[in-house]
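S.,

As promised, the beta-D-galactopyranuronic acid run. Input:
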Amino acid sequence: MKFRSLFFALSTACVAALLAGVPASAQETNYDESKVPSYVLPDPLVMNNGKAVKSARQWTRKRAPEIVETFADQMYGHIPARPEGLHFKLLSKETVYGGIAERKVVRAFLDKGEEHWFDILIHLPAGATKPVPAFAGINFYGNEATITGRSIGSWPYEYIVKSGFCVATAWRDEIEPDDPKNTDKGVRSWYNKGGDWGAISAWAWALSRILDYFETDPAVDASKVAVIGHSRLGKTAMWAGACDPRFALVVSNDSGCCGAAISRRAFGETFEVIASRFPHWFCKNFQKYKGRENDFPGDQNCLAATFAPRPFYVASATEDQWADPKGEWICAKSLTPVYALFGKKGLGKDTMPAPDTPDMDGSVGYHIRTGGHALSDYDWQNYLAFAKRHLVK
Ligand code: GTR
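Predicted complex:
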C-alpha cells in the first residue's frame, strides 16, 4: 500500500523469514503415524441442529453457509464486503515471451480517493479469440519477484499462458503485512477497522477483488477462475474459495494446518504452534483452541466440503511432513459423500496414491509430489490438466 515505506517492507520480510525458521513451540511435534491420537472426523453432512443434510439444495442454501460462518467466527475472522470505491486502472501493458503473452499491471484502488491500493500482475495468452479461464493467487515476495526474482519458480507464466490460461497475482504484504507486530499497517488498519479479521482473511478479501477485476476485463471468463495458493497462501486460497462462491475451482498447494490438513490428527504443525507463532493470521477466538483440536466445531474437511460441487485439488509433497500430507489426503478423500449429493465423483481412488501419480478422475484431485515444501512446475502441470478438464469444455 502507498503508505508503507520501503523500510517497512524490508523489515516485514525479515521478520517473516525469521519466524519461518523458529522451531516449533514447547509442544513436541509428532511425525509418527502410530502416535496420531484417535479422533472422530466431523461429518459435514450433519447440520448444527443435528439434522442430516439430504439434498444438494440444502447443502448450498443452509449447510455450506453455516460451516463458513463457523470458520469465520472461530478461525479466520469475517471477510468484509467489497469496498464501495473499488475501481481499477491499467498501469502498463506489454507483449512478452516472444509474443505469446500479454503482461498487464492493473492497480486496484480500494477507495474513491485513491489513497489505498494494491497492484495486480496479469499474464494473458496474446491474441485469444474468446475470453480465457484464469488462475488467481497471492504471492510471497512481490509481483516483480515472480518475473525476475526469488519466486520465478512458483509462477511459470509462459507455461500457464501456453496452456490457454490467464494468471493474476498480487503481493501479500501490499495487502496486509505478514507480521504479528504490524497488524496496523495493511488493509485492516483502515477498512472495516475494528473488525476481527485475520491476515488470511485480508489476503482472501484481496483475491475476491482480483475476481472483481476479472469481471471487468472482457479478455477473461470470470465464471472460470481458479483460486490457488501455496502454504499460508494455500490456506488463504481455501478460505477465499469458501467465502466467495464465484471462484469456480480451488487449489491448495501444501497448505497444511488450517488449510487442507485434518487438525485432529495433530501431525506436524498443530493449533498450539500455529496460533502462537502466527496469531495475526486468525481471529481472536482461535486462540482458545490451542492444544484443543478436538473442541473445534468441525475440521478442515468441513471447510473443504463447502467448495462442492466446485472442483477442488489438493497437493502435498513427500518431504513436507510439517503440512501432514496424509492428513491432506484424508481431507480430500472424505469429501466423496458431499460431491455425491450433486451426482459427482469425489476423489477417484480409495487409497493414497504413490508419489508423483496424480489421482484426478473425479471432481476432487490429489497428488503427492516427490520433494519439499514448494509450488513447482510439476504441481502446475497437474493443476492445469485438472482445470482444463473442469473449466474448458
Ligand atoms: C510455516 C507455517 C505453515 C506454513 C508455512 C508457509 O512456518 O508453520 O503453516 O504456512 O510457514 O507459509 O510457508
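The chain is about 30% helix and 20% strand. Residues 20, 231-232, 256-257, 269, 274 surround beta-D-galactopyranuronic acid (CB under 6 Å).

- D.
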